[in-house]
Amino acid sequence: MKSKSLAILLLLYSFSFSITAQQVFWASKVLEFSSENIVPFQPSANRANQILGKPNVLPQFVASGLAWQPAFKTLDSDEFIKVSFDTTLVIQQISIAKNFGEATIEKVIAFDSLMQSHVLFQEKDSLKAPEKGEMFNIILSEKTSFKVFAIGVFISKRKHNELIQLDAIGISTLDNPVQANIHVAKDAPTAVIRENLGKEVNSRHQEFAPVISSDGNTLYFTRNYLSLFGKQKDQDVWLSKLNESKEWTKAKNIGVPINTKDKNAVFAISTDGTEMLLMNKYHKNGRLSSGISHSFKNGGTWAFPEEVKIDNYYNQSQNAEFTLSADGNTMIMSIQRKNTVGKRDLYVSFKKSNSTWTEPKSLGNTINSIEHEMTPFIAADTKTLYFSTRGFPGFGDNDIFKSQRLDDTWTNWSEPENLGEAINTPYWDGYFTLPASGEFAYVCSYNGNNKEDIFKLTLPKNAQPQPVAIILGNVLSTTDKQSIACIIMMIPRNATLKSEQKKYEPANGNFKFILPLHEAVDFVPVARGYLGISETIDLTNVKSYREINKDLYLLPLEIGNKGILNSLTFQQGDAKLQASAMRDLDRIIQVMNEFPDLEILFEGHSDNQGDFQLNLQLSEDRVNAVKKYITSQGIAPNRITTKGWGQTRPLASNATEERRRLNRRVEFTITKK
User: Fold this and answer.
1) Residue 278, domain member (yes or no)
2) How far apart are CA 522 and CA 534, in angstroms?
3) Do 214 and 314 belong to one domain?
4) Which residues share a beta bridge with 402?
């Protein structure tokens, strides 16, 4: 092949932390290469195809499995790689991301569509290629007279111990140097208040893996004891609580059965604080083995941890982390499996009806690199995922990134974004965890003394995940206001949202649900011997984080007890039953089937709009619609009696439509049991 040379205007080595948009086409296919380094137990590391795509390492000047590394089997062996692109174009610049090593880029050749070669750079004729990791830009004095199909890079070394890693090769029409960028989130804060939690939480030992409760009032973490000689002694789960002054109290060891003589760690805590996800499987003889367990709280006491059973679960790494979604039905884990891209990857598993979990499924190559993806955390919005990795360009060692879930498969994610220099340090950063409010983050980082501590970050609003609402309260009897153990069902009005149910135990404190904004849901408590009174929480017009205290009520099935069917509200002048009302009536039908002697009186009411006699008739029509629906489901008509009161017994004033809606209601009374 005939070789041609082009004059070089200048050669620049550049790197930057900016995120300026650049029209660069990065290599998409490896056509040919001389050799590649083989890394034991990491089949993807340093392979030739690691040079494809945009830079994954720069601007960090470090050795990485994310770059191609030739083997250099002999001192005089010449190494090369030839790559092509998704497009052919006339170019003015070639950009080679050299992230590590001292070997020399000796020559760069362009190939046109006929595979004729054109020498664009030769080391002996120009400035020397960089001897450390930098973006190596070859800017031509004029654009090529041909469209470039492929680029070949040739490498030589002068000493036995020299090596090189190339992260990416790009071509462009730009005449200004291409920069190596960190993909920083647009909403990443430029400054945050970073506060070491101090001696009440942090000690001379290693504190890591913080897990904050949904309400932000309890911090769980793991403490790794160090002996006087610096050796690991023990590892336990600890907790600290916020006092009335919003200061963290002296941390306490959570004790048995969570902590044993072996190493213990906490992974996650449920929204209501009654389930804890723990490292390892617990055995009755006090031993631990590889796996994952959970413990349930009952009256302030944690039960003996039981194994969490996941279909075809195995982990080829000695380490793992797990996180739970707000509804407790989705788990993301950092583990290593046969199909792992490199080291540990992130996988998703879903809870099944029998409380076991589905086989882990990879989150995909958008999230997973050949480095460790670790310390995952799902925000309360169930859409924002935070994790730690050095598999994407960053500011130091492991950085914290975030990604947005794009659909309900949990395997389709947005490109990970770095949280920026205000959050990430030059050292190892991970274990990013948030309460439901999103106002603060807790993170594990080095304290400057080569020891991990837990820090609190105050986040500006634009750096917080999507806002949610916490609904909390107790379930009480309508008669004596005593708390009652039950099941609470959350039923969305929007059919695209999933229903949810939780067990309520008064000894464990308030129930808690986390809901997305702009939705309306119904809450119904269920217990044998009671009839649940449904409550609607309407968040359709709520735009910011809320904590809503709302007690739920159960009506004892005793003669004379009376309640209101809150779902049985009507449009003005209408007696048509709505879908939410039918769900409540279905529960009444179920109770009447369980108690075959039960009889109920339904009383209808209206507002004061319109004619008195018409309103009286309307109230009768409404309770007759209730009776018709119940009897259509097999309940004997003689067990249902009805009475219409029209506008004579208002609950509220009729001054506004909102108040009038409360008067358009149906009440019920137990008349026989």
Assistant:
1) yes
2) 6
3) yes
4) 386, 417
Q: Cα–Cα distance between 82 and 163 in angstroms, integer?
A: 18
Q: What's the pLDDT score for residue 127?
A: 46
The residue out of 556, 586, 616 marking a domain boundary is 556
Q: Does residue 447 fall inside a structural domain?
A: yes
> In terms of domains, do 531 and 631 share one?
no
pLDDT reading at 660 higher than 90: no
Angstrom distances, CA of residue 634 to CA of 120, 588, 629 = 87, 12, 9
Give the residue numbers spanning the domain of 474: 467-556
Note whether residue 188 is domain-resident.
no
**Adjacent-strand bridge partners of 172:** 93
Q: Which residue, 565, 548, 557, 560, is CA-closest to 484?
A: 557
Q: How far apart are CA 65 and CA 350, in angstroms?
A: 31
C-alpha 163/C-alpha 144 separation (Å) is: 31
Are residues 468 and 380 in contact, defined by beta-carbon separation less than 8 angstroms?
yes
Q: Do 529 and 668 have their domain in common? A: no
The angle formed by the CA atoms of residues 388, 392 and 393, to the nearest 5 degrees, is: 110
Domain total in the chain? 4
Sign of torsion over alpha carbons 175, 178, 183, 185: negative
Domain check: are 166 and 106 in the same one? yes
Task: Establish whether the linkage from the previous residue to 130 is cis, with ω within 30° of 0.
Answer: no
| Segment 559-585, tens digit of pLDDT | 999 988 877 766 667 778 877 788 889
Is residue 445 in some structural domain? Answer: yes
> Could you say which DSSP state residue 462 is in?
G
Q: What is the pTM of this model?
A: 0.86
CATH number at residue 343: 2.115.10.20
* Consecutive H or E run containing 612: helix 612-632
Quote the strand ranges of 364-497, DSSP E: 373-378, 384-389, 399-404, 417-418, 429-433, 440-446, 452-458, 468-473, 475-477, 486-492
Do 168 and 27 touch, CB atoms closer than 8 A? yes
What end-to-end distance do the CA atoms of the chain give, in Å? 99
232 pLDDT band, cuts 50/70/90, is low
Q: Are residues 300 and 397 in the same domain?
A: yes
For the chain, how big is the Rg over CA atoms in Å? 32
Is the same domain home to 392 and 262?
A: yes
Same domain, 260 and 313: yes
Query: Does an H or E element contain 365, and which?
Result: none
Indicate if the pLDDT at residue 6 is higher than 70: no
Task: Name residue 230's amino acid.
Answer: G
- Assess whether 259 and 363 both reside in one domain: yes
Distance, CA of 639 to CA of 173 (rounded, Å): 84
Taking the C-alpha atoms of residue 506 and residue 298, their distance in angstroms, rounded to an integer, is: 9
Question: Residue 587: which H helix or E strand, with range?
Answer: helix 579-594
Strand segments, DSSP code E, in 20-73 are 25-26, 29-33
For residue 506, give the 3-state DSSP assignment: helix
Whichever domain contains 471, its CATH number is: 2.60.40.10
**Beta-carbon neighbour count of residue 10 at 10 Å?**
13
Distances (CA, A) of 50 to 15, 23, 44, 73: 20, 21, 8, 20
pLDDT for residue 11: 47
Evaluate whether 500 touches 511 at the Cβ level (below 8 Å): no
- Find the CATH number of the domain harbouring 565: 3.30.1330.60
Distances (CA, A) of 437 to 263, 270, 345: 32, 15, 28
Given 486, 521, 556, the domain boundary residue is 556
